[in-house]
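A reminder from the course coordinator: this example appears on the midterm review sheet, so study it carefully.

Given structure:
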């Protein structure tokens, strides 16, 4: 799971092979074909081959080779074919996708997840993960890949919606939706940003209602509260128009939710970094420095977290160690 933005920030069946020929000592004719009147003799009780197939075509693999090839291919594709009946294997593949996502191997994670989706298109665990990886892909793209980022952002929203449809009571599905809407704010106008902000808040609150221990939901809600208190006059006017009045948001509620996220997951670097950034913007230097120092003490697991550490180091220099 990477940076969350909430502010103006997608068994092979093989053709049936020739039926097994009888084994034994019968020999196939070699050289020129016999005349039409001649017939090949077969062991007693065996049927003759279909007309025109008295011998294997020259250079073709034996039936035994084909048999082993089919067995090997079946073994290769068997895990995906059995996913619906093998929850343990599904769990292992989901964990593998999570590890790939956490270590910046987004496309490999997407490949696994979309393979699982084909086996079970309504599996909420698969759908919300695809949404989350798409969101992470957007954050990882260079600035000049805006069109590609937009495509991933749109797909992220679509998969989050499918996840909620598959299981409306999945807290993770609602968090994925909140994150996806936050990512979309990078690609839309100011009015649409504010429309998405309303959705972000609603999805984060629903996620917490369904699972009060969902640390990411608290992080999203904390960032929403904080950013709403920092709106410029234009965005504030749009927000009042959309909400009827400015929604209840406060810096105190933001800081409270940051702390809840940390209490639930004290070793997640993103929580400490975002909390430190908010504290620094509020001029609470000592508290901000404490959070930045925690960021530096945690071992980074991906490029995004190494980026947090670089920014935390710079933040400490700015605030004065």
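Designed residues:
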């Amino acid at each position: 799971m990477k940076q969350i933005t909430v502010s103006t920030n997608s068994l092979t069946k093989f053709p049936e092979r020739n039926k097994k020929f009888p084994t034994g000592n019968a020999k196939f004719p070699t050289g020129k074909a016999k005349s039409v009147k001649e017939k090949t003799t077969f062991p007693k009780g065996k049927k003759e081959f279909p007309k025109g197939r008295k011998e294997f075509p020259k250079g073709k693999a034996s039936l035994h080779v084909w048999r082993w090839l089919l067995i090997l291919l079946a073994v290769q594709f068997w895990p995906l074919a059995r996913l619906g009946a093998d929850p343990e294997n599904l769990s292992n593949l989901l964990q593998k996708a999570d590890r790939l996502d956490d270590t910046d191997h987004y496309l490999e994670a997407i490949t696994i997840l979309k393979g699982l989706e084909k086996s079970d298109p309504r599996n909420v665990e698969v759908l919300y993960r695809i949404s989350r990886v798409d969101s992470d892909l957007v954050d990882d793209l260079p600035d000049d890949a805006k069109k590609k980022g937009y495509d991933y952002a749109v797909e992220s929203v679509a998969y989050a919606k499918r996840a909620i449809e598959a299981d409306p009571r999945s807290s993770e599905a609602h968090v994925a939706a909140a994150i996806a809407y936050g990512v979309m704010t990078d690609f839309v106008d100011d009015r649409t940003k504010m429309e998405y902000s309303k959705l972000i808040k609603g999805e984060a609150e629903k996620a917490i209602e369904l699972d009060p221990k969902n640390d990411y939901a608290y992080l999203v809600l904390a960032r929403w509260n904080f950013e709403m208190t920092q709106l410029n006059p234009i965005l504030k006017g749009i927000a009042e128009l959309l909400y009827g009045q400015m929604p209840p948001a406060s810096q105190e509620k933001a800081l409270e939710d940051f702390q809840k996220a940390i209490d639930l997951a004290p070793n997640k670097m993103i929580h400490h970094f975002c909390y430190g950034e908010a504290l620094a913007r509020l001029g609470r230097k000592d508290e901000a420095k404490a959070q930045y120092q925690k960021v530096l003490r945690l071992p980074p697991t991906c490029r995004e977290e190494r980026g947090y550490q670089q920014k935390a180091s710079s933040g400490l220099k700015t605030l004065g160690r």
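Confidence is low (pLDDT under 50) at residues 6-40, 53-63, 73-85. The chain is about 65% helix and 0% strand.
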